[in-house]
Amino acid sequence: MKRVITYGTFDLLHYGHINLLRRAKEQGDYLIVALSSDEFNELKGKKSFFNFEERKHLLEAIRFVDLVICEDSWKQKESDIIKYEVDCFVIGDDWEGQFDFLKDICDVIYLERTPEISTTEIKRKLETIGNK
Ligand code: C2G
After folding, report:
1. Which of 2, 25, 44, 75 is catalytic?
2. Which of 10, 61, 72, 112 is the most buried (most CB within 10 A)?
3. Residue nearest to atom 14 of ligand 1 (CA)
């Protein structure tokens, strides 16, 4: 069984996230998502609309996702990969090159982001509607 892992906040779940998760699962047979905690989001300079439990609930409903774990540190990737016997690390190409250090212990794949959609863009459009 080929095991894949990816990391992210996945706030206001949208089709860009789903495209990523679908293609991540296509890299193997079992997909683990390390979901950023609310505290870790603060470290990333993000304030999510949905809290960790709400975002976890949504991710667990996605058929491509087999396990959701918590991401609460930049430093946990190596230990996660070893602990969960991961073969392949996958993330969007907005992170191109940032995780090449993991190549010593697993495959590293950067997948093309889905253009024109982002949580930030969704929030901006909602604010525009709200101000009309
Ligand atoms: N993504 C995508 N297309 C979009 C938006 C997001 O492919 N239009 C991908 C991102 O590249 C990422 C995943 O969806 O692989 C989750 O995106 P975010 O929630 O924005 O994740 P991020 O804040 O980049 O967290 O330790 C790594 C970080 O936790 C990654």
Report:
1. 44
2. 10
3. 17
